[in-house]
Amino acid sequence: MDMNTFFNDLQSKISQVIENSPAKDIERNVKSMMTQGFARLDLVTREEFDIQAQVLAKTRARLELMETRLAELEAKIVADKAAPTSLEKSAS
Hints:
Elements: H1 3-19, H2 22-40, H3 46-82, H4 86-91
């Protein structure tokens, strides 16, 4: 018997023993309890988290652009109010 066959046979027998042992039932019960516990929590998948992170990054970029544009417009309004109009120049 070669070593590969020996280890494959050993692995098969160990799997059968575990499958028929209480350890497998314990594993199933633990998985079931964990699944129920996680279902009660308000969790998201990694994919959902990554999508929301991308949306947030785009929103931040747009907000920064809008803040810059608003500051430019406010500066222009202040500059326009400070500059004398053509009527004021002709009256002087």
